[in-house]
Amino acid sequence: MNVTVKTRITHNQLDSIRKTLRSADGRISYNSARRIATGYKVRVHVITGDLKASIHTVKEAPGKHSVVAGMPYASFEEYGTRYRPPHPALRPAVEAEKLRLKQELVELFHR
Amino acid sequence: MTFVGAETLVTDQWIEDQLAPLVVGDVITGIYQENGPVDAAYPFAVYTSMSIRDVRVVGGIRVMVDTLYVVKAVAQTSMFVELRPQAAAIDAALNTLDTTPVLNGFVVTSFREEPYRQATFERGEDFRSLGGLYRIHAQAI
């Protein structure tokens, strides 16, 4: 016995999906990057405040945003060094955002 | 009944248990949390929790914790390659299906999510760290 499954996606539907995704991806990545930057700022270990003040988001391409810490010692703060203990701030912010972003993408595809 | 935060202690204990044979086998000189003591002999291992999140199921029931740890070998050297045996041994110990129970709980899964390396120059000396970021799921009992 054979079972045949046919799927048909019309051009109009694809266009609609493409338009929805195109308009949403920039917004989603921007909002996500902003939430990560905020979480990073909330958690970051503050001594002088320079690192906290240097945290910002950058639009690299449509739908692609980066969270940037402008101080060269940012990774030393995050992971620690031989004599300095670590103060994780960016990683926890990213981890916290993962679930929210996943949920947002699921909602987008259910529209 | 478990107490709050018990899972993170389970994870800490599990990491120490997994790495203990490396100290016995003279691969590393010691295992330290957060940072090695100033007078520690090299190479040693350091582990730090980077992130801890609860994993819940329907009804908000907390079933385990999802943690991310950085575990690295540290040595006073200018060459990462000198830490290759220690990093490989750490990876073999932690990237494993061995979920041997520890006191008050057990680790469900542990795998390396990404490699880690860092070079620092402090107090006039070169240091290198080599290891990985490990995703560890643990449950307290």
Q: Which features characterize this protein?
A:
heterodimer, A: 111 residues, mainly alpha, two-stranded antiparallel sheet, B: 141 residues, 5-stranded mixed β-sheet, 2 helices, elongated
Describe the structure.
The complex is a heterodimer of chains A (111) and B (141). Chain A is mainly alpha-helical. Chain A is 59% helix and 12% strand. Chain A has a two-stranded antiparallel ribbon with strand order 1-2. The longest helix of chain A has 33 residues. Chain A is elongated, with a radius of gyration of 20 Å. With 141 residues, chain B is an alpha+beta fold. Chain B is 21% helix and 47% strand. In chain B, strands 1-2-3-5-4 form a 5-stranded mixed sheet. At the A-B interface, helix 3 and helix 4 of A face strand 2, strand 3, strand 4 and strand 5 of B.
Task: Write a compact overview of the structure shown.
The complex is a heterodimer of chains A (111) and B (141). Chain A has 111 residues and is mainly α.
Please state how the strands of the largest beta sheet of chain B are arranged side by side.
1-2-3-5-4
Main sheet: strands, sense, barrel of chain A: 2 strands, antiparallel
Give the CA-based shape of chain B: elongated
Order of helices and strands of chain A: HHEEHH
Largest interface: A-B, 17 and 22 residues
Mean pLDDT of chain A: 84
How are the SSEs placed, and which strands pair?
The complex is a heterodimer of chains A (111) and B (141).
Chain A: H1 11-43, H2 50-54, E1 55-61, E2 64-69, H3 74-79, H4 90-110
Antiparallel strand pairs in A: 1-2
Helix pairs in contact in A: 1-4
Chain B: H1 6-24, E1 31-33, E2 44-57, E3 61-75, H2 84-94, E4 105-122, E5 125-140
Helix pairs in contact in B: 1-2
